Amino acid sequence: MDVKVTKKKLSLKDRYKLLTRDLGWQTTYQPMDKVYPYVTFEGIKIHDWEKWEDPFRLTVDAYWKYQAEKERKLYAIIDAHAQNNGHLNITDASYLTALKLFLQAISPGEYAASKGFARAGREFGGIGTQVACQMQALDEIRHAQTQIHAISNYNKFYNGFHAFADQRDRIWYNTVPRSFFDDAMSAGPFEFLIAISFSFEYVLTNLLFVPFMSGAAYNGDMSTVTFGFSAQSDEARHMTLGLESIKFILEQDPANVPIVQKWIDKWFARGMRLLSLVATMMDYMLPKRVMSWREAWNIYGVENGSALFTDLARYGIGLPKHWDDVEKSIDHISHQVQMALYQWSFGTSFHSWIPSDEDMAWLSAKYPETFDKYYRPRWENIKKLKAAGTPYANFGLPKLCQVCQLPCLFTEPDDPTSHCQRETEYKGEKYHFCSDGCQHVFENEPEKYVQAWLPMPGLFQEPLKGDIGAWMQWVGLNPGKDTGDYDGSEDQLNFAAWRTQATRNE
Length: 506
Known about the structure:
Layout: H1 12-19, H2 32-35, H3 60-83, H4 96-123, H5 127-155, H6 164-170, H7 175-185, H8 189-218, H9 222-252, H10 256-274, H11 276-285, H12 293-312, H13 323-329, H14 333-343, H15 357-366, H16 371-387, E1 411-412, E2 415-419, E3 422-426, E4 429-433, H17 436-444, H18 446-449, H19 455-458, H20 468-475, H21 490-503
Antiparallel strand pairs: 1-2, 3-4
Helix pairs in contact: 3-5, 3-9, 4-5, 4-6, 4-7, 4-8, 5-9, 8-9, 8-10, 8-12, 10-17, 11-14
């Protein structure tokens, strides 16, 4: 009699191997170095791809089940938020300035990272690295989608949310995050991994997501909090991938160390300039504040970052080159960027305002060595100008940094009364920078950055030819509705009226 043989159930380890590592193969029609030409493009030496350790051991089928459950919970809460007029539960409509900045700057960055990881996964030779990049590419596009879905409810009621896709590419302050991600995506695969997985996800992401999601919770924005919580497990995986990436590269060959150090120097300088917008959001844009930018930097920069680079010292990696200059700037950058946004508020898709006496008292307590000495007098003068009927507005075009693309508005690290402006000449042309860090980034790769599209010179090119009205239309701004002072704005008046209707029998 034939006996039916039951197949032995695979262990999780064997199943994982079959669904990831066993998907790779050696090519026969073409040599491997032609199939993966970018593996050697940057000078990185990889001797054994099998040394790559997958931090979470996820297979595709497990990934889909896990994410599908999160999607069900996420959209249930987003639907409840919409049905229960969640847009009226925020502390004040001025909070939406932070949300608009996030939608215009970070959500498109998530989408760009998705494209970058999809491309990097094709360019790496090891199957473990390919699978890790595939998982993160899927995470990143999901994050962009859920953020846009969650925030889209506010577009029904408030101004400035409608044209974020065009504004990501065209409006002046959004070229800062755009250029950051375009820079990473146009690098080789290993630099992309150090730029996004390590420098941004592992070193800097806490300075973005933790304060922002906490700020959303403090200000009653449960829609934003929900997509933040939904993304947190993904972010934990991304941070672990970032640490694994740098360890893998450094342990493969000692010759990789100076290359990786140069990339860390570059992406720390670039990342901190990008986060100056987050610093401004934390110190000025939240009606109810969680912590100051200084407090966030002390926790996630000084404590966490110093411990990380102490651990990496055994590989020969040191602190980023401009760490000390960044530390000196922490007590200044949010004030300097906010003053820039205020004076150019006619050209932003969100409102700005002069900090109230209560706000300035808070800023004074958080920045006792700098705010009262350098920034309170400026705000008080701006307040007098507004009271006199001559509000301060700067209709000039600022000089932009060729690398980070922020206006050259920052001060010298050791002298907050002097502007920090650098310049260098390349092939007979002068290029300008806002810091030593940005200048050094340019001088290492000048051919890359001379091609940067800068929004201010672009205003005088076709089809705009210097026409401010045409520029407003081109970037999708409605003057007076999306722009200008928050006081007396349509958003402020509507929010006050709707809140009254929601709480009174009128």
